[in-house]
Amino acid sequence: MTAIDAMTWQDFELYVAELCRRDGCTEVSVVGGSGDLAADIVGRMPDGRRLVVQVKHYASHRTVPSGDMQKFVGMAFNEHHADVAVFVATCEYGKAARDLALKHNIVALNRNLFGSWNSGATLGSLLSLSGAGGGMPRRRGSVRKRHDGASYDRSTTDRRAREAPGGRG
Predict the structure, then answer these.
(1) CA angle at 133 for the pair 130 and 136, rounded to the nearest 5°
(2) Which letter does DSSP use for residue 29 in this model?
(3) Cα 4 to Cα 15: distance, rounded to the nearest angstrom
(4) Residues 52-104: tens digit of each pLDDT
C-alpha cells in the first residue's frame, strides 16, 4: 500500500481502471475530473452489467464522509445507470457513509478490501463483501428488530401468523 499511498489521485484512478481491466471488465474508461458527476470510472463487468466506480485517494487516517457517499448514491444509478456501483477508498468509511452504502447497494471497498483487490483478489469476488453488491438485494422493511435486540424476518413471521390456526388474515 505504500506505493498506492504515494500515487497522485489521477494515477490512482488510472490504476483502479487497470485493476478492472485485469479482472475482465470491458469498455473501461476513466471519466473523473471536474464535472464527472460522481463517477471516476465506467465500464462493463465481464457479464455485461454496467460498472460505475468512484475513487477516493485519501490519507489512510481519514474516513470517507457521508457527503461523498451521498453524492455517489445520488448519481451512480440515476445519472450513470449503474448495475454495479463501487466506491473505492484508500481509507475507512465513516459510519454514516457505510450505512448509506449498505442501504443503497453500493460496494464500498475500504483500504483493507482494496488491498485484497490489489493483491490479486478479483473484483467479482469482492462484490458480496461490502454493501449488497453482487448479492441478493435486501427487501426494504422486511428485517425488524425485536424488543430484545434480536432480528426477525417480518414477511416470514407475518405469513406464519396468517397461516396459524386462529391467526390473523
Answers:
(1) 115
(2) E
(3) 9
(4) 999 999 999 999 999 999 999 999 999 999 999 999 999 999 999 999 999 99
Give the DSSP letter string of 66-86. Answer: HHHHHHHHHHHTTTT--SEEE
18 to 1, 11, 22, 43, 166: CA distances (angstroms): 16, 11, 6, 11, 61
pLDDT at 36 over 90: no
Phi, psi of 31 (to 5 degrees): -120, 5
Q: Give the whole-angstrom CA distance, residue 50 versus residue 41.
A: 11
Q: Give me the helices (H) in the chain, please.
A: 2-6, 9-22, 66-76, 95-103, 111-118, 123-126, 154-163
Residue 99 one-letter amino acid = D
Average pLDDT over the chain, rounded to whole? Answer: 81
Neighbours of 76 (CB within 10 A): 26
**For residue range 56-66, what is the model confidence (pLDDT) as tens digits?**
999 999 999 99
Q: What is the pTM for the complete model shown?
A: 0.76
Q: How far from 12 is each of 3, 5, 17, 35, 86, CA to CA, in Å? A: 10, 9, 9, 18, 15
- 58 contacts 64 by C-beta, under 8 angstroms: yes
